[in-house]
Design brief:
Rossmann fold; 60s Ribosomal Protein L30, Chain: A; seven-stranded parallel beta sheet; 33% helix; binds nicotinamide-adenine-dinucleotide; binds D-malate; serine biosynthesis; PGDH_ASB_dom; NAD
Length: 528
């Protein structure tokens, strides 16, 4: 089957190389699509690769019926509706490391250009004006740089600023005094940083909490004559507030690489002589573009071909060594989820998953997701996947609880799933037998030993002579061959179950006939 990838923003050819090499992949590069064109064609693709230009909105995701993964060649994912991607089961991966150096270097270039008014002087000279008076700058040495957001890029900027003999003070919710001390910088709260900086540079993502973080109030807390740098995201700084702060003389200059609206439509701020700017060039180096394209293409290829992503954004990443240990249980967990979903027609309110024996030592979160996926697929089909299983369960109000116990109950590993509904609970347990694979070993309180695959029939009946024979004869009348049969009972003459594996699916009318047999209480056909 051919896997189709749409590349809707320009990406380095170096990254695309791996995609072109793979004959399962068909790549379409279309970097000038209008919103309507994207909405129209996205349904044909398994993967979408973007930078920051393409807006991957709810509407785009609604049309993206085949889409499995969105690759963002860069860090910021604010152009992708992550909640909608998760809801639609689309994994988002990014390339967070490849452009850190370029963005940090660009920030320093902007800082220096701002301090020395290089762009303004250059523009004058290009207009044949030899003006040495208007462009007197300030030194960086011994000035204080306030950094808001000390992640990958913020930390690199701090290092470089120290190289310029600047004092650095930073605020980041994850920064501690000890860490700051180790980095040779000062630690402060947001107000401290705003109040101390001769220059202030922001390096946070654009989130609800950081939108207009630098607003009227923030400017009022800054030193008079402060200079501002934003090479992170438009919208972290309130552009209207910045405009007013420049006009009032509070802010002496600003260097902007990113804008609230891109491409810029309103040039009011950019027309101020105190503002220098680049059109979102922070990551625009040959090296960064190669790095991010290679990283993101590798992750997209991995996902499309059943592997693991290194940089998932809307999905917890599972370290390779953990994955290796839990992988053998994937089949078992999904099959138990699918099996137990058939045992009730009522709405499931709670799912309790018990991990016993050696399973209790593992990071079982991926198995829980897989079990829930198996469970929800009965009513929601293939649309449910690892990315959206929890989200969809939550939306349905299903509570998911994990329990762990080292007690083995006679098995080296045991995965027990219990579902609770208004009128009761059902339970199924399974194990992984060395060399034999997955087995269902308990249904409610009955012990069985059944491979969770193929066509199964679960029959609850009275433990009476003849019950098994009647079932066998009826299936024979419909020309259905029984491959395996297990019988479990609690008491002699009491309630019992039969678990049959049959060679072909039992249609509805066969199940109805089985239900009509004497001493049969319930019949459920389960196709796994
Ligand atoms: P990162 O995730 O490594 O760092 C972001 C930091 O911001 C984190 O340490 C986080 O704790 C901190 N933070 C979050 N909310 C905060 C708040 N309210 N106050 C203070 N700190 C807060 O990200 P990064 O790779 O360093 O990227 C930083 C920014 O730069 C992002 O917005 C990214 O999109 C942008 N970026 C821009 C370009 C460009 O071309 N201009 C290139 C690369 C990255
Ligand atoms: C990023 O978030 O990585 C940058 O904005 C780079 C980009 O996409 O140009």
């Amino acid at each position: 089957m051919t896997l189709r990838i749409l590349i809707s923003d320009p990406l380095s050819d170096e990254g695309l190389h791996a995609l072109h090499q793979d004959d399962r992949i068909e790549v379409t590069v279309s970097t000038e699509l209008s919103v309507d064109e994207l909405l129209h064609c996205i349904g044909e693709y398994d993967a979408l690769l973007v930078r920051s230009q393409t807006q991957v909105t709810k509407e785009v995701l609604r049309q993206a019926s085949k889409l499995k993964v969105i690759g963002r060649a860069g860090v910021g994912v604010d152009n992708i509706d992550l909640d909608a991607a998760t809801e639609h089961g689309v994994l988002v991966v990014n390339a967070p490391d490849g452009n850190t150096n370029s963005a940090a270097e660009h920030t320093m270039a902007m800082l220096m250009a701002l301090a020395r008014k290089i762009p303004q002087a250059y523009a004058a000279l290009k207009e044949h004006r030899w003006d040495r008076k208007s462009f007197v700058g300030v030194e960086l040495k011994n000035k204080t740089l306030g950094i808001v957001g000390l992640g990958r890029i913020g930390a690199e900027v701090a290092e470089r600023a120290k190289g310029q003999k600047m004092n650095v003070i930073a605020y980041d919710p994850y920064l501690t005094e000890e860490k700051a001390e180790k980095m040779g910088i000062q630690y402060g709260c947001l107000e401290d940083v705003l109040g101390a900086g001769d220059f202030i540079t922001v390096h946070t993502p654009l989130l609800k909490e950081t939108k207009h973080l630098i607003n009227h109030k923030a400017f009022s807390q800054m030193k008079d004559g402060v200079q501002i740098v934003n090479c992170a995201r438009g919208g972290i700084i309130d552009e209207e507030a910045l405009y007013e702060a420049i006009l009032s003389g509070k802010v002496a200059g600003a260097a902007l690489d990113v804008f609230e609206e891109e491409p810029v439509q309103n040039y009011k701020l950019l027309e101020l002589p105190e503002v220098i700017a680049t059109p979102h060039l922070g990551a625009s180096t040959v090296e960064a573009q190669e790095n991010v394209a290679i990283d993101v293409c590798r992750d997209v290829l991995q996902i499309l071909t059943g592997g693991l992503a290194k940089n998932p954004v809307n999905f917890p990443s599972v370290p390779a060594e953990v994955m290796k240990r839990i992988e053998p249980y994937f089949h078992l967990s999904e099959k138990i989820g699918a099996f137990i979903s058939r045992l009730t027609d009522e709405a499931v309110e709670e799912v309790c998953i018990y991990y016993s024996g050696e399973l209790a030592d593992l990071d079982t979160a991926p198995l829980t997701r897989n079990t829930v996926k198996g469970l929800l697929r009965r009513y929601m089909g293939e649309h449910v996947n690892d990315v959206n299983a929890h989200f969809l369960a939550q939306k349905k109000g299903i509570v998911i609880i994990e329990h762990k116990s080292s007690s083995t109950k006679g098995f080296t590993n045991l995965l027990t799933v219990e579902i609770k509904t208004k009128s009761g609970a059902r339970k199924v347990a399974g194990t992984l037998l060395s060399g034999l694979g997955a087995r269902i070993v308990k249904v409610d309180d009955y012990s069985v030993d059944v491979k969770p695959s193929g066509h199964l029939i679960l029959i609850q009946h009275k433990d009476q002579p003849g019950a098994i024979g009647r079932v066998g004869s009826l299936l024979a009348n419909f020309d259905i061959n029984i491959a395996t049969m297990q019988v479990g009972r609690l008491d002699v003459g009491g309630s019992a179950i039969m678990m049959l594996t049959i060679d072909r699916q039992a249609e509805g009318h066969v199940v109805d006939e089985l239900r009509r047999l004497t001493d049969i209480f319930a019949v459920i056909a389960i196709d796994l």
